[in-house]
Amino acid sequence: MALLNSRLERFLLTKLHFSNCRTKTTINRSNSFVSVRPKSQQQCSAIALDAMSSSLTDVAGIRWGYTSLQGVRDEMEDDIVIRSDGLDGFSFAAVFDGHAGFSSVNFLRDELYKECITALHGGLLLRGKDFNNIRKALKEAFENVDAKLLNWLEMTCKEDESGSTATIVFLADDMLIISHIGDSSVVLSRSGRPEVLTDPHRPYGSNKVSLQEIRRIREAGGWIVNGRICGDIAVSRAFGDILFKTKKNKMLKKGLEEGKWSGKFISRVQFNSDLLIASPDVFQVSLGSDAEFIVLASDGLWDYIDSSDAVTFVRNQLREHGDVQLACEALAQAAMDRRSLDNVSIVIADLGRTDWKGIPLEQQNVFYEFGQAIATMGIVWLGIWVSSML
């Protein structure tokens, strides 16, 4: 394929690694690449971009923005990866939300992409558009990576108990593929209407997915306390977390030493399978002319800003200035302004179909937002109560 200019060539061939993504990304216009101010021990993958905008732009005309902000947590354990090489029309983006350390995220940021590409036969399955084969390949890739991660943690990080959720997307002009474990989420804006494309994997709640997760955990021999598996972890699907997979007996011993339970209690516990799993939900979404943009973000956003408000916010931002990167940074800051206690990581992909200057600004109802926040808190506590009663 003939390249149009040197910037496009750099875009196709370049993968950059930076020392962290704790704060919002900035643009070095002298060399047309993203740069990140070093303020934590985190890494972030990035790609080249159009020098005329602070947003990343890929060959399909899709414009990307991304950012990570650290909340009140002691460490920044999130990571974002965006890649556009080797997929013939498909871009790749991922949000990793780590916990109990950064080791698992550091392993996944490269290995998951490579394993997915191998399972997808270098992208041939994506182009073939046989969803059953795509779903089977991605499920196999996620489970293989988890097995490799657990082995790596066992061999090199003896005391490492880290884990990570992962939500990845393969995005083309007309199709979106999502593979997802954990509590990050993907939302699609269709002519301003939010479409939530994923369900969080959590061991509490009264929705169908949560009830299925609760049932699976109990059948595996686990229990739930205050919305957490064995009183410890609040997600039910994740990579790593060796104590809830291959080291469950060590988890019991550790809990005994910490006074969480008694020896008599342990004697009655019988595990039948892993309490956490890395088997993903995989979705295929057709993108018609009404598809405007997608928002892929960690739960640090969605626990404080719902999908409707997020879509309205991003549309208004793009209407004002058209810059996806600035919209992404503003959305993350809005979550912080609403007292988000978690780290916030966001990727926005503008599909390039919308004339944002012709879209009217939308008003947000402050009283409605307050009511929604109260209702959300009530639903969360109701879900925890329901799960404890099952």
TrEMBL record:
What is the official name of this protein in its record? protein-serine/threonine phosphatase
GO MF terms here are:
metal ion binding; protein serine/threonine phosphatase activity
* Location in the cell: Membrane
Q: What is the lineage of its organism?
A: Eukaryota, Viridiplantae, Streptophyta, Embryophyta, Tracheophyta
According to its record, how does it sit in the membrane? Single-pass membrane protein
Keywords associated with the record:
Hydrolase, Magnesium, Manganese, Membrane, Metal-binding, Protein phosphatase, Transmembrane, Transmembrane helix
Q: Which SUPFAM superfamilies match?
A: PP2C-like
Q: Which family does it belong to?
A: Belongs to the PP2C family.
Q: Where is the signal peptide?
A: none
Q: Which residues form the PPM-type phosphatase domain?
A: 63-351
For activity, the cofactor(s) needed are: Mn(2+); Mg(2+)
Q: List, alphabetically, the SMART domains matched.
A: PP2Cc
State which Enzyme Commission number(s) the record gives.
3.1.3.16
One GO cellular component assignment for this chain's record is: membrane
